[in-house]
Amino acid sequence: MVALVHGVPLEMTQAEVYQEVQDNVLLNASFWANIALAGVAILLFVYMGRNVTDPRAKLIWVATLLVPLVSIASYTGLASGLTISFFEMPSGHALAGEEVLTMWGRYLTWTLSTPMILLALGLLAGTNLTKLFTIITADIAMCVTGLAAAMTTSSYGLRWFWYFLSCTFFIVVLYVLLVEWPKDAEAAGTSDIFNMLKILTVVLWLGYPIFWALGAEGLAILDVAITSWGYSALDIGAKYVFAFLLLRWVAANEALIARQPSAFGTGIVDDTGTGTPADD
Ligand code: RET
Is residue 23 classed exposed, middle or buried when 0-12, 13-18 and 19+ CB atoms within 10 A define those classes? Predict the structure, then answer.
């Protein structure tokens, strides 16, 4: 698998990684299923948003549309072997000394896709800039530290320390989603749809750290292809199902979105922006 020159392992070439992916039918299918779904989602979402005119509703639509756009690029990176590497696991790991297939491109592209999901949800909840900034920076930090956890090969303990840091940022994300935004959504009159999407998001997002911990990068209880399908299945719900439900609602309730206060206020009492708050 890994070429040796005078007993020294060489980095695998991209073509060799690609061949490994091709040889693992289950793994390869977990990528191509998402490329196909992302393609369908992009076309469907463009169609669903064709009559949206309000700038705020349009922003939700653009943010939501970016989710499958990032996804198709992300999965193409994985399917081509570009964003996959074989990393030798440190001692202490269940596969210590072995070269483990690591889909680091997933964590990298989550830093682009997950903020779009949160931006769309925050706009739906009619939140302010302070809370949007907090959740999005914590979310990016969660993805970057998750990337570091997967790519650290020097120490098993430090892999889990990165994981713990990532979970800490995740708690901030969960706090805003579960405590702050429901109050904002209540005031904005978007509670019903917000609460439904909040539950979908929280339940599915909790699956990601669980798969990381059980997969080859963590405790190595699950095989690489099963872990990849775990992420791919979560992605289908957290991205395409989520985006479909959100866009369907936005297209039918544009006026309610248009009436919300500006998202770019800071939350200071008289800083309500240009719109008029919902009167219910
Ligand atoms: C990692 C491992 C470290 C600990 C935590 C994680 C959380 C990841 C999450 C990812 C969500 C991804 C989505 C992608 C859609 O495009 C990085 C797995 C907490 C919550 C929704």
Answer: exposed
| Residue 88 parent element (H or E) | strand 85-88
Q: Which of 71, 164, 208, 214 to mutate to test the pocket of ligand 1 (most atoms within 8 A of CB)?
A: 208
Q: Which atom of ligand 1 is nearest to the CA of 74?
A: 16
Tokens standing for 128? 């302010």
Which helix (H) or strand (E) segment holds residue 86: the answer is: strand 85-88
- For residue 144, how far is its CA from the centre of ligand 1 (angstroms)? 10
Query: Ligand 1: does its nearest atom lie under 6 Å from the Cβ of 231?
Result: no
Can you give the pLDDT of all 280 residues of the chain as single tens digits? 555 545 445 578 999 999 999 999 999 999 999 999 999 999 999 999 999 999 999 999 999 999 999 999 999 999 999 999 999 999 999 999 999 999 999 999 999 999 999 999 999 999 999 999 999 999 999 999 999 999 999 999 999 999 999 999 999 999 999 999 999 999 999 999 999 999 999 999 999 999 999 999 999 999 999 999 999 999 999 999 999 999 999 999 998 888 876 656 655 555 444 444 444 4
Question: Which CA distances in Å does 1 have to 10, 99, 174?
Answer: 10, 9, 41
